[in-house]
Amino acid sequence: MNNILSEKEYQHFIMDRLVQDNGYIVRKATNYDRFFAMDRELLFRFLNDTQPNEMDALRKIYKTDLEDTIVGFINAEVTKARGSLLDVLKHGIEISNMKLELMYTKPATTFNRELLAKYEKNIFSVMEEVWASDKERVDLVIFLNGLAIMSFELKCNAAGQSYQDAIYQYRVDRDPKTRLFWFKAGCLVNFAMDLEQVYMTTKLAGNATFFLPFNMGNGEGVNAGAGNPTFKDKYSVSYMWEDILTKDTVLDLISKFIFIETKESKDELTEKTKKSENVIFPRYHQFDVIRKLLGDVRDNGTTQNYLIQHSAGSGKTNSIAWLAHRLTSLHDADNKIIFDNVVIITDRVVVDRQLQKAIMGMEHKAGLIRVMDDKCNSADLAIALNGNTKIIATTIQKFPYIVDSVAGLKNKHFAVIIDEAHSSTAGKDMAAVTKSLGAGEQEGIDVEDMITGEIRRNGKQANVSMFAFTATPKPTTIQLFGRLNTKGQREAFHIYSMKQAIEEGFILDVLQNYTTYDTFYQLNKEIEEDPRCKTADAKRQIARFVELHETNIAQRVEVIIEHFRTTVMPELGGMAKAMVITASRQGAVKYRQAFENYTKKKGYTDIKALVAFSGKVKLPDDETEYSEASMNGFPEDRLTKEFDKDEYQVLLVANKYQTGFDQPKLCAMYVLKKLKGVSAVQTLSRLNRICPPFEKKTFVLDFANTYEDIKAAFSPYYTTTLLSTSVTPTAIYDLEAQIDAYTVLDPDDIEKANELLYKKNISAKDKQKLTFYSKRAKNMIEKYDLIKQHEIVSAMRHFVRFYEFLLQASCFEDTDLHKKYNFITYLLAYINIKHPGGGYNLDGKIKATNFVQKKVEEHTTSNLVAQPVVKLPTAESFGLTEAKEERLSEIIAEINSRTGKAYNNDVAVKAMLQIRDILLKSDKLKTSARNNTVKDFEFSYFDDIDDALIEGLEQNQDFFSLLLSNEEIKRQVLGIFTEEIYKSLREA
């Protein structure tokens, strides 16, 4: 590797590489025509060489004016309002009924030798020290057939400069009106590059010029981040001349990737629609994933599925559009088209129009894409799948309805692109996708054969490849779409990590400026009686009672509004907005009411809130029926546009807008509900969008979760997500044995029911028989007590869910088991137990007083550490433990410090957590957990508790002494940790 010490040496080094490795021609800067941003001599060398007949015909018409005429015409085409250099390069020009091509792309097949020959005649050239104007000298300019397509400002780190100096040069010293830099008419892209990093822009706009990184990413797996790798024998940015500037890549970029995006926005004052344009140039990870996917598909056809783990801020819509467009014309080594149709599936109810615009921007061809919007039904989708539309975009909800109606698809090949793949990909909807498009055939009329065929169709289909995009892959998603690495773990085919996106500045780290609050209160019983009730039910009712308590809401609203007005509102030039995550629809209504009461009382006119929840809600002791539309004063479908206006600052939501909502002005989030796993990541990620040109900061005030819990939720998705376990049939057989042990299913009924289910024309009498078999099983279940009934139904539901996943993730076949699955599925629909049963209504029986909102922790840096390994849920974890029952007074004692005394709640909780932490360090308990069931583990657990209490005696003498002296209270209080400690130690 040359030891480059100056910018000039770097310049010459790149030029040498382009000439020696890539066949470029070096041209003198004197050949540059600054008025038209071209090298005229090379332009006409290309035209005369590739299209001699057309040039001869035009020469007869224009004679000695031909060159000036062509140059003037090209210039007029690229500089007019709707014109662009990109359009002229892709589609050529037409003069006097003569078509002239300005570049030739590589043909999709090798059949057309003439086109291949012309493709080889494209001329690539480079100039150094190009005077774009009297005041502007550019380091390097790249030309295609004489037309300037790329500019480079180079900096050498060894000389004390970096890409940032090059960016400054573009912003300050380069005039956007200079012909070379003229938006859409000049260079397609401008690069700022040093020896280590590359940044790019497609639109110069003075100080407002927005540069994007064009780096490979540095490191792999958990170490992946921004920047580029360090190599022993070459520069970190060597991929630029080794790959990006090669002839094939440049032509690929121009013909297949770069496109012009048009955005529309409404001027609130004039009501006129404004249009803005951007030239979209792929970021490195986007270009990389498309090429790698195409290469793998070219080799493997439709045999593989693909998981693409790309963070929020990765430009997923454009990545999907590029992939869909390229897959429509992808040929294999034998020049055969691989896919007949590309189906894009989203779990959003209304398919994103942005996707359609992106695809049409790449190739404006009638009939290329059809979006099945909310006006289309499943019959329309079936027609589209059977037709010639190359790209079909639809919602996953439509697929189950066409399983039996789509015919003749087994001879077609499909690419299915799943937008934001997560839990919906592991259930009946995704099974319906593979079943609809699958090539598996039912070979006979025998019920056994029909069931076997159905099983085969539910798994990976030979004629269907799936491409699943997600930022937060669940274990089930990785199992379905991931592929094995050398360590035996499943992982994504391609990764653009959250860590890299944050470091590159595409998204923000939402775990910075994170503050947690605890709510303290005293809970008392308001009745003489002491009823028995299920702990979980009682706790849920108590939590809901506290959540909706007016004093609690009033205190939290004061914290929220004052924090927003003092800390958040000045952000983004006064345009900052916030979201409040409430725990229920009733909560959303009551918080909105409290919000308005507080702002009215304080006389605040600069803060207004909207509310978002589904359906209609009534509050206790209030006959009014509340809805989102009635409270906001406009229909639901207008909410996003209204919230975008300066008039509104805060959005209070209940299970709405926590995923897929893109509002860059959101700076703060106030969390009032428990968030777990993927849900926590997706909810808090509403804040992570950047909002140029502002330096946006984010704020989170969390009243319901600990900071450690939220970090734990984010850690699997921070870098790469790896699946360490795999699904096995053993687990499903364990579940089957568990269900069989209840003896509620008659094998003969299962057999007869399946014969009816697979009849071609099922009659009313057949349906009566099916109901009879279901009722008989239901009667058997009802012979058990209510708790056991719930246990049986829960086991059956888990069996169905796990079995469906097993079918999709493996080649598993067991006809008898599938019959049982069919029967249980039918039975569950018949039973459909929704009532809680046997619970105890606590309304009016408890009261809460002495509310205090106390700031617990304030975090200004996240220090997030990746925890990439995740595991599949196992059948064992689906089992229910026996429901505990405790007296209501014991439950209140548990909440109010776990004793009958007036211990401070905060102190008591900390005391118990301290015991738990001591127990978690016990080697004796760890050995016991690994070798015993949870019930056997309890013996050693309670033996060790006394040692833990003695160890912690100094810090909490009074409380721990009570527990040591009272065996019953000790078991009641500390028994709540048994299962948690058992699971933690068993997995450690």
UniProtKB/TrEMBL annotation:
<keyword id="KW-0255">Endonuclease</keyword>
<dbReference type="InterPro" id="IPR007409">
    <property type="entry name" value="Restrct_endonuc_type1_HsdR_N"/>
</dbReference>
<dbReference type="GO" id="GO:0003677">
    <property type="term" value="F:DNA binding"/>
</dbReference>
<dbReference type="Pfam" id="PF18766">
    <property type="entry name" value="SWI2_SNF2"/>
</dbReference>
<protein>
    <submittedName>
        <fullName>Restriction endonuclease</fullName>
    </submittedName>
</protein>
<dbReference type="InterPro" id="IPR055180">
    <property type="entry name" value="HsdR_RecA-like_helicase_dom_2"/>
</dbReference>
<dbReference type="GO" id="GO:0009307">
    <property type="term" value="P:DNA restriction-modification system"/>
</dbReference>
<dbReference type="GO" id="GO:0009035">
    <property type="term" value="F:type I site-specific deoxyribonuclease activity"/>
</dbReference>
<feature type="domain" description="Helicase ATP-binding">
    <location>
        <begin position="278"/>
        <end position="496"/>
    </location>
</feature>
<keyword id="KW-0540">Nuclease</keyword>
<dbReference type="InterPro" id="IPR040980">
    <property type="entry name" value="SWI2_SNF2"/>
</dbReference>
<dbReference type="Pfam" id="PF04313">
    <property type="entry name" value="HSDR_N"/>
</dbReference>
<dbReference type="InterPro" id="IPR014001">
    <property type="entry name" value="Helicase_ATP-bd"/>
</dbReference>
<keyword id="KW-0378">Hydrolase</keyword>
<dbReference type="Pfam" id="PF22679">
    <property type="entry name" value="T1R_D3-like"/>
</dbReference>
<dbReference type="GO" id="GO:0005524">
    <property type="term" value="F:ATP binding"/>
</dbReference>
<dbReference type="InterPro" id="IPR027417">
    <property type="entry name" value="P-loop_NTPase"/>
</dbReference>
